[in-house]
Amino acid sequence: MRGIILLIVVVVCSSSVFIQTQEQQQPIKSVVVLVLENRSFDHMVGWMKKSLNPSINGVTGKECNSANKQKIVCFSDDAEYVDPDPGHSFEAVQQQVFGSGSLPSMSGFVEQALSMSQNLSETVMKGFRPENVPIYTTLVSEFAVFDRWFSSIPGPTQPNRLFVYSATSHGSTSHVKKQLATGYPQQTIFDSLHSNGLDFGVYFQNIPTTLFYRNMRKLKYIFKFHQYDLKFKKDARNGKLPSLTVIEPRYFDLKGLPANDDHPSHDVAHGQKLVKEVYETLRASPQWNETLLVITYDEHGGFYDHVQTPYVNVPNPDGNTGPAPYFFKFDRLGVRVPTIMVSPWIKKGTVISKPRGPTPDSEFEHSSIPATIKKIFNLSSNFLTHRDAWAGTFEQVVGELTSPRTDCPEVLPDVAPLRRTETNENRGLSEFQGEVVQLAAVLNGDHFLSNFPAEMGKKMNVKEAHEYVRGAVSRFIRASKEAIKLGADQSAIVDMRSSLTTRSSFHN
Q: 271-317: per-residue pLDDT in tens?
């Protein structure tokens, strides 16, 4: 009997030593996530297969789509400034991916584009030459590119952004206005980090879209929101970046303050400049040797990609079904998007395709972000949904070197603008910008007015929307901090009341 007890003790001890060793091997203490807007893999980096690395699953120029067997358009390398915005609603993506068949043949992009505008059919079948996206060209050659990373649903921005930090869109396949006032109710990776005693920060430029999650409006999180221009460089320089750093780009295009989110009609050169700035800031930080930067795109924005979207054995996250008429079961992924990862622990020129698990059908998609954060930080919290429990994780990308590289570039190339026309601050809002205005209206208390949600954004131009959003965010943050001073419960949420003053109440 004594021998059996001794054996058990030895096994327990050896397993604890193994866990300790694993933790020692994990070099990453800070994950930085930047999600840009509406571009496919082939559109942004597909041509790098030819000029940079033949092992990238990119394009050759032989990829074509036809419309009615009369108009055939093949993929070319002359992408430039894009305006207007291609279609990327749930219905549009269905047509792009399936064409007229029942399998995801990726054959309907030209036909869907033609249904919107005659000129768009050429636009959606173009990719950038590597020299026109010099920041990505450098990062792909120096670090890692994922050539099989998909958006989480075949649909637009908002549901895909929700998946990035919560592994579900709570049944949304588009923007659901009635959900907006209360906020999406699901648990997030921010909640998991907080309950495990780890810090996070959201560094925003116009508005933190993470406020679409209801939990993120709680008073206990209000000091996690930072203005990017005031705090990001300072925190990086002082070695104060938290375990998870979220960077939100500028979503409104103004003269002297251009949008840098890559959403058409914005110039991707400004997105490149943002990535350059983030990289160079991290590279100069004392935290560089323990940092992993993740750059991805919410969805493909209607631009062509040749890789079939996965449609077999993709798990529904939480039992929710999409609305009529499709009643989407969340059982297939969206179109492939560019995802680049940067760390001194990554081998030069790494290309990552299919994950090693956790199931034979697992794929890299946006839920891979919370799934990997759970692994990297050894979180005791449960998985958020069935989807992040299934998604491929990428901690191994930083697991192959025994010490951090010292040859990573300190400065990235300069970026030339692609747009030749002047910024039009008077143009109407994109669908996504309209959604951002609606979020701002909730933060401002204007959703209690009779004209909400009667498309407030439709009455605004870009400049007006920017001013409105900035004021609303500032007022909400100020009122929340005031509520904390007054002793409000940390789990309460501030409800602003529409008024010329900043009257507010708070509730659980």
A: 999 999 999 999 999 999 999 999 999 999 999 999 999 999 999 99
- Nearest Cα neighbor of 26 from 380, 292, 376 is 376
- How many domains does the chain fold into? 3
Sign of the CA dihedral with 279 first, then 283, 287, and 288 last: positive
Last residue of a domain, one of 398, 417, 452: 398
Helix axis angle, 228-237 relative to 268-283, nearest 10°? Answer: 30
Provide the 8-state DSSP code for 423: P
Give me the phi and psi of 68, to 5 degrees please: 55, 25
Measured between its terminal Cα atoms, the distance across the chain in Å is 55
Tokens of 363: 């794929």
Backbone angles phi and psi of 341, in degrees to 5: -125, 140
What are all long-range contacts of 93-97, with beta carbons under 8 Å and residues at least 24 apart?
Answer: 93/154, 93/155, 93/300, 93/302, 93/334, 93/335, 94/154, 94/326, 96/302, 96/304, 96/335, 97/154, 97/309, 97/335
Q: What are the angstrom distances between the C-alpha of 139 and each of 57, 155, 286, 342? A: 17, 28, 20, 7
Round to whole Å and give the CA distance between 389 and 368.
9
What DSSP element (H or E) covers 237?
helix 228-237
Among candidate residues 82, 97, 122, the one where a domain is terminated: 122
Q: Are residues 107 and 228 in the same domain?
A: no
